[in-house]
Amino acid sequence: MSTVAKSAAVSLLLLVAALVAGYFVGRRIPNLQAPISIEDEMWVADGGSFHVVLRDARNRRYAIGVEGSLGVPPSNFEVYVQPWFSFFPVPIYLARSSQEEQALLAAVEAWSKQLADPKPQAQSLAQVARVLRSRKS
Fold this sequence. Notes:
Elements: H1 3-26, E1 37-43, E2 50-55, E3 61-67, E4 78-82, E5 92-93, H2 99-112, H3 118-134
Helix pairs in contact: 2-3
C-alpha cells in the first residue's frame, strides 16, 4: 500500500471515529447558564413540528426540535437535539423514555425558569416539555 493510500485510510478512520464520538458526546444535555434566551424558533404549518434555538449566558447555542402533525398524537412525535447547531446542524433523535429524553425534560423545565424574557418565550419550551411528558411510557 502506498503512503498516500495509508494516509487517506488513516484520515478516513479518524474522521469516522470523530463522528461516532461526537454522536455519543452530543447526546449529553448541556448545562446552559442563565439567562437563557430563545434565539430563533420556527413553527411548521403541519400543526406539530417546531424547532427552537437557545442561547445561554456564555453564548453557547443548543437546538431542540419536535416533528409531528395534527393527525398524530403528541406521544408519537419525534424529538431531536442539535448540540452543534452552529457548526454541524445534524439532528440526533432521542429514543422514547431514554435517559437522554428524561435529562432533556429536566433541563427544559429548568431552562424555562431561567429565560431572560419568559413571557413571550415560554411557549416553545412549554411545548417541548408537554411532548416529552406525553412520550413517557
